[in-house]
Amino acid sequence: QVQLVEAGGGLVQAGGSLRLSCAASGRTFSSYAMGWFRQAPGKEREFVADISSSGISTYYADVVKGRFTISRDNAKNTVYLQMNSLKPEDTAVYYCAARPRFTLSSMNNYSCWGQGTQVTVSS
Length: 123
Known about the structure:
Elements: E1 3-7, E2 10-13, E3 18-25, E4 32-39, E5 46-51, E6 58-60, E7 68-73, E8 78-83, E9 92-100, E10 112-113, E11 117-122
Parallel strand pairs: 2-11
Antiparallel strand pairs: 1-3, 3-8, 4-5, 4-9, 5-6, 7-8, 9-10, 9-11
């Protein structure tokens, strides 16, 4: 298990941008695929994006395709989520999570989770 700490959340106007980061501790970061999830008040946690351990492969939820970009820098033990063209419905607590490489990007396979960072998009 790795320790994950999210940062970069805040309040932005609709149409604006934010860049979230997730810093990981531990020597095995490069052996984990990483994902971003979000949870709005009164709603279930939902998948946002995933990136393979190498950073070569990415996968996005349909609702964020074309607006969000996930990336990672294994040398810095950090994964990022660049969020552009933000909408009020993007308002949620955003979590990063880790899963072992070569596993499916199902929520059940993410074994380590960060504490979350709040993103609020005003209209």
